Amino acid sequence: MKKVLCYFFAFLCICFLLPALLTKQNIPVHTEQTIENQSDENNISEETPYNYVQYGTIHLLHKKTGKIEEVALDEYLYHVVSAEMPAEYELEALKAQAIVARTYTIYKVKNKKHENADICDDSTCCQAWVSKEDRLQRWEESKREANWKKIQQCVNETKGKVITYHNEPINAFFHANSGGITELPVNVWGGSGLPYLQVVETSGEDAYSQYASEVVLTNQELIDKLKTKYKNIQINFENSEDIKILDYTDSHRVKTVQFGNCKISGVEARSILGLKSTNFEIIKEANQIKFTVKGYGHGVGMSQTGADSLAKQGKNYEEIIHHFYAEVEIKEVNSI
Q1: C-alpha–C-alpha distance, residues 115 and 137, integer Å
Q2: CA separation, residue 103 to residues 110, 158, 169, 282, 332 (Å)
Q3: N or C: which end of the chain has fewer CB within 10 A?
Q4: What is the domain partition of the chain in residue ranges?
Q5: Tens-digit pLDDT profile for residues 17-66
Q6: Angle between helices 304-312 and 317-324 (to 10 degrees)
């Protein structure tokens, strides 16, 4: 009986244990690097898109062609921010610009100016816009990819954020350089003004090329330019009282200027004479007039060079926005 049992166990070993020993096992080897890579893959998550309840798409009018394009809001903002602010500016300044541009866009959507479109690509009417192809061509080839990714980052990291006053998107005006101090909208466009747009000072703007400029006109050139609007203007260039600034706004911009027999607003003088700002002084020289100018743009709202200067001083986009817009809140657009 014992002999039979021995034969039986021997048979089992041959049938089961031996094949197992002879068969090559496919057991994966997990090195430390493999585990680390798998951990990295598990930590990678795709960016969650912002689900706009409304305003997720806009109708953009291309002024030159008259074509109206339906485009996703943040995709549109890539083209706006890249057109409106230099890519080499600080990231926090670009984020502030993205939020300002988004707010301005939604304000335009809610207060339509164009018949079949929400906003246009003309900076003199709405906001600047440039195609990706044109924008890339204007950048140095070595910087193109990095610049575009930086623009996308500033828009993506502020998705859905807008500036509000009393829970409504503000009319978020902005300009290139304030000359160190911003202007009230009432001094530019009239009306009763907007409480969130006040006069604020910003240090560091004099470090930018947009800060100072000048226009020099001969006496005849000055007359010719003014006659495009004031046909009967007469100036006695020998009379020191015939060309002078009569008064200034609180931000030291020209409110009214005398040209011979005409009194002209600083805003109108800027437009007629091609000045970059209403913050100018007049220097009379032999047979010519020199206008020395501070700043670039209407001066209302956020100064772009001011935003960059503040970012260089360590301010984040929220602090930059609260510097230029009084008593506002930064909210998710879905909450308003």
Answers
A1: 33
A2: 11, 11, 6, 37, 11
A3: N
A4: 57-172+302-335, 206-294
A5: 444 444 434 333 333 333 333 333 333 334 567 999 999 999 999 999 99
A6: 130
